[in-house]
Amino acid sequence: MKPFSWSTERCARTFYVAALLSVVLWALIFYSTSLQSQSGDALSKPPAFFSSRSGRPDPSCAGRYVYMYDLPPRFNADLARDCRRLSASTDMCRHVVNDGFGAPITDGGGGSLPESGAYATDQYMLELIFHARMRQYECLTSDPAAAAVVYVPFYAEFDLAMCIDNSDISARNALPRDMADWLVRRPEWRAMGGRDHFMVASRPTWDLLCDPNHGGYGNSLMTYPAIRNMTVLAFEASPWQGNDFGVPYPSHFHPSSDAQVVAWQSRMRGLDRRRLWCFAGGSRHESRKTGRNQIIEQCRRSSRCALLGKEAVTKSPGEYTQGEYSPSHAMRLLESAEFCIQPRGDSYTRKSIFDTILAGCIPVFLHPISAYVQYTWYLPRDYRTYSVFIPQSDVIGRNASIEEVLSKIPPAKVAQMREEVIRLIPAVMYREPAAKGVEFKDAFDVAVGRVIDRVAKRRRAAAEGRECRDSVDGYDSWKYDLLEDGQTEIGPHEFDPYMSM
């Protein structure tokens, strides 16, 4: 009996052990499956308010996540490395350094620029500057499903600069065409047909609207359907396109703290502006379209006006090419005057507009496209609060004396306008990408916020089964950008007479 009893007892113990192991095994399987399921959910829907950069919950990122494509290097990094091809006459590689800010201005520009944060920044580096800021953006996410918007870091200006002299339109369109084709194959693009995507162009958008069938200047990037659905930020937008928006040209001061900005604004308030007006620029062979020659002529006849002199141009190899003004001289001139004249540049806008605002000088515009219908995200809708408008036809036809117009503005009004200009300074700067603990919103912050708002409207419209109509192509496109909050109807506008000039 003992053998039988022992065998029965052993079998019972074996049974209980097996049962226990089975329970443990199934528990482990269930737990593992649960983890995998939770992990999969986390990848498709990360926890709300989670900042992928800090790894900690961040309520401020709710609705502000940006997904940035990791593009093949030929669309950006390779173009920047090949910077010597950007210009046949100028060493553009000196501008690519420091994330597109260029070389530091170490002497403080002779007092016209701060000793820290001043750079010899070239206007065509905007794509590089924006990309550097986005890499440091506090709400960057690796999950496109969690993103409010999707950023495409394509260096369109670099590509066009390298092939602009090629008479073959197909060759100029080769990389833009590849960029568009690459995008439409991406699941991130197909989610909304690119309507939640945006990119930056260091070019006037006119240069990216060349008819692919008939040729002309520039390339055809912005004519492709994949790009037409996107939001395009450029330092000069077309008033007649519905998907492009103007953002500030980069100037020369890139602060890394709120204190630097406050100190700069205080200095601009305290300057002794001994001149009534000035013009920082040269003549143009098309002056009949811009009024530059007439501006220079009026300024030379006045004791209350100043121009950039010959000493403002340096021919030193590796610094500035012949005909290029040094930042310190230009800023010193702008800081010396109450009003700074801003005619059209090579196109409707010019970098000097934002140098002028940085200098606390009241801009005087000759055409509404130079600023008023361009930078609606940055400048007050009531242009009279911060600027003066003198129609260029009056200047070109010698029907207006610039000095007489400016002299009639009461001193109290001048002081109010200058204070408004100084208030605008933080939002038109591009701060240091790696700056920490900064509270002020710079040009990058404003642009990203407005793009997010625009895409949110498109998402709401799609959820309601309709197309968001926040703008149109054609003559009236610029009027949509000037609508006040709550307005939906457009009509006659005071700028109508100037929009065909």
TrEMBL record:
* Chief location bin: Golgi
Q: Does the keyword Lipoprotein apply?
A: no
Where in or outside the cell?
Answer: Golgi apparatus membrane
Q: Which residues cross the membrane?
A: 12-31
Start and end of every Exostosin GT47 domain? 61-403
Keywords attached to this entry: Glycosyltransferase, Golgi apparatus, Membrane, Signal-anchor, Transferase, Transmembrane, Transmembrane helix
Topology with respect to the bilayer: Single-pass type II membrane protein
Matching Pfam families: Exostosin_GT47
Q: What GO cellular component term, any one, is given? A: Golgi membrane
Molecular function (Gene Ontology), one example: glycosyltransferase activity
**Family statement drawn from the similarity comment of this UniProt entry:** Belongs to the glycosyltransferase 47 family.
Q: What is the official name of this protein in its record?
A: Exostosin GT47 domain-containing protein
Per the UniProt entry, what species is this protein from, by scientific name?
Triticum aestivum (Wheat)
Q: What is the lineage of its organism?
A: Eukaryota, Viridiplantae, Streptophyta, Embryophyta, Tracheophyta
Q: Which gene produces this protein?
A: LOC123137351
